[in-house]
Design brief:
About 25% of the residues lie in helices and about 20% in strands. It has 7 helices and 10 strands.
């Protein structure tokens, strides 16, 4: 469990109110970029009274503001608002490969693969790819937005994640859904995003079985989140009330990671 560090900000409520007004006027990509840069270090130093020459103070300050940023983004998130969709003619070809390793290191998945399910669920049995493909499927043409500043449009197909969570009897009152992956990646999302109608357990890309470079056997596709929140090569889904963190989030990336 990561313990939140509380600092005293005299105008915290006013800051949240003003930021909310500003973000509500921005388009979706701009809101995501803003979410990764909520306040400058200079503004933080004035608010908290911390010296920028004191690394411990800066770390504490940034962690506190990251938690505040998560809370703000969660407050702004509309679980029914849809991200933009696009015509198939606008698909980016080729869709770029992106990971924290090179294409030569894409994990090889065993033929007997099954998706593990654990945590606050009534039915923790594993799911084979055949079982997942037999469920009602949906597709979307949406934009992937990377925190590094680039974006690409792709077509994803698979099982609406909210349907999957209901089939496994997930406790939708729980705070988090976490993911473990074959490439040693891991991340987690809030339950509201997990239940969003565009959150997809993607099994295909552009009408074909999901290629290894895009996350075979499955990835979570969330157009409401930045790219690093969309895990690939998923091996386990778990539901929990305990904060699970994430590969990049534990290194300082914003946890909410979207809007």
């Amino acid at each position: 469990m990561i313990k939140k560090i509380k600092l005293f900000f005299p105008h915290e409520k006013e800051i949240i109110k003003d930021a909310g007004k500003l973000l509500s006027k921005l388009d979706m990509p701009s809101r995501r970029v803003f979410g990764t840069r909520a306040l400058s270090l200079g503004a933080l130093s004035m608010m908290s009274g911390c010296s920028l020459s004191d690394s411990d103070s800066v770390d504490t300050m940034l962690k506190t503001m990251s938690h505040l940023n998560d809370d703000l983004q969660g407050w702004l998130f509309d679980p029914q608002r849809l991200a933009p969709t696009y015509d198939e003619s606008m698909i980016t070809r080729p869709f770029p490969f992106n990971a924290f390793y090179g294409e030569q290191d894409i994990p090889q998945i065993d033929a007997d693969y099954a998706l593990a399910v654990s945590g606050l669920v009534r039915s923790p049995q594993p799911w084979t790819l055949a079982q997942l493909r037999s469920l009602p499927q949906a597709s979307q043409v949406t934009r992937h937005i990377c925190v590094e500043g680039w974006s690409a449009i792709g077509k994803w197909g698979g099982v609406p994640f909210s349907d999957f969570l209901r089939r496994i009897g997930a406790d939708t009152r729980a705070k988090y859904v976490g993911f473990r992956c074959a490439d040693d990646y891991f991340t987690s999302i809030d339950m509201a995003t997990a239940l969003h109608p565009q959150t997809l357990l993607a099994l295909t890309y552009d009408g074909q079985i999901l290629p290894p470079k895009y996350g075979y056997p499955m990835k979570l596709r969330m157009p409401t989140k930045l790219g690093y929140k969309n895990p690939k090569h998923i091996t386990e889904v778990f539901v929990t009330n305990r904060y699970p963190g994430g590969y990049w989030e534990d290194q300082g990336y914003n946890w909410f990671g979207g809007s």
